[in-house]
Write a structure and sequence with these properties.
33% of the residues lie in helices and 23% in strands. It has 149 residues and is of the alpha+beta class. The protein has a single domain, classed as Aminopeptidase. It has a 5-stranded mixed sheet, with helices on both faces. The protein starts with 5 loop residues before the first strand and ends in a 19-residue tail after the last helix. It binds coenzyme A (COA).
């Protein structure tokens, strides 16, 4: 594997359908409690690309898409909302290499990088721990319609 071949490109409007598909796969792999249909995922990523609400980045090796990330700078640091490596390319070090590139070339160096993982996403959590992330908080929710007891 030649990690030097991985590059990060800012996504274009034309790539929104591809990103919608990858987002759908992400929601299958890290089951989302409130999943959106493909059309809504594509619309949302189109909005992010057009407005800059989030920066949407594609990881590529040559023409081959390896994964994608969605992030923005928030008060607390660089918040990575989506991070995804294509299923057929996992466990080859591309996730680690992509985070190293993001840290080197994209994220501000003087700010922390923050992610949120679903508590059931054992593989994702193992990945973040393996590359050096530390547990930070625990998100909780009260379901709509439920009253606090
Ligand atoms: C999580 C994800 C990004 C990891 O990408 P990847 O390219 O497979 O990760 P790497 O190959 O760089 O793995 C680096 C290390 O992380 C750990 N790791 C990665 N995947 C793992 C898994 N499924 N189970 C246990 N540990 C894992 C290992 O220690 C691995 O090193 P090793 O392969 O030498 O043992 C990828 O599985 C993915 O896109 N999953 C679906 C989306 C997702 O869950 N994103 C994160 C949301 S919080």
């Amino acid at each position: 594997m030649d990690r030097g071949k991985l590059r990060i490109d800012r996504a274009t409007r034309a790539e929104a359908p591809l990103l919608g598909e990858l987002n759908l796969q992400l929601d299958e792999d890290e089951p989302h409690p409130y999943p959106l249909p493909l059309s809504a995922l594509t619309e949302r990523v189109t909005r992010w690309i057009e407005t800059g609400e989030y920066e949407v980045l594609l990881f590529r090796r040559g023409e081959r898409v390896t994964g994608y990330a969605v992030w923005r700078l928030e008060d607390r640091g660089a918040y990575v909302r989506h991070f995804f490596i294509c299923r057929d390319q996992r466990r080859q070090g591309w996730g680690r290499a992509a985070m190293q590139l993001l840290r080197r070339d994209v994220f501000p160096k003087d700010r922390p990088v923050q992610i949120e993982a679903a508590i059931g996403n054992k593989a994702g959590i193992a990945f973040w721990h393996a590359i050096g992330f530390q547990d930070f908080g625990l998100s909780m929710e009260l379901k709509a319609g439920d009253a606090p007891s």
